[in-house]
Design brief:
4 helices; mainly alpha
């Protein structure tokens, strides 16, 4: 059954989250250094990892019987994932100035850390501690 595979899916999800962060940092470093990611795999591998991350997260929600619209920590986590994605888009595509891109980069890292904390503690944590 799928519920028997939950521990494996959870570990896979955590590994994919780490890979997502590492590729994001790598892509941002290259971008801020002025290097273009010209090879096809350099652009598509991170997107594939993000897709697998989303799929593993959806699978875990299904196995645990969680609804993304029920409120609580899972809803906040999904909202923060959306914030992380949008800030990443500003950094890598839509930021009009270096300052805007760097601020979006810092915001994306804060969002990622908050997502990880939500996943670990499974409760909504205040942003200001």
């Amino acid at each position: 059954m799928l519920s028997d595979a939950y521990p494996v899916i959870k570990i896979l999800h955590a590994m994919l989250a780490l890979l997502t962060l590492l590729f994001f940092l790598w892509r941002c470093r290259a971008f801020f250094a002025g290097r273009k990611l010209s090879r096809l795999w350099q652009r598509h591998i991170p997107d594939s990892i993000d897709t697998l991350l989303l799929g593993s997260g959806a699978t875990m929600m299904f196995v645990l019987g969680l609804s993304p619209f029920a409120g609580g920590w899972i809803s906040v986590k999904l909202l923060m994932v959306l914030v992380y994605i949008l800030l990443g888009m500003v950094v890598l595509h839509f930021g009009r100035s270096e300052l805007v891109r760097r601020m979006a980069w810092a915001g994306a890292l804060v969002a990622f850390i908050y997502i990880a904390l939500l996943a670990h503690f499974k409760e909504i944590l205040p942003l200001a501690m």
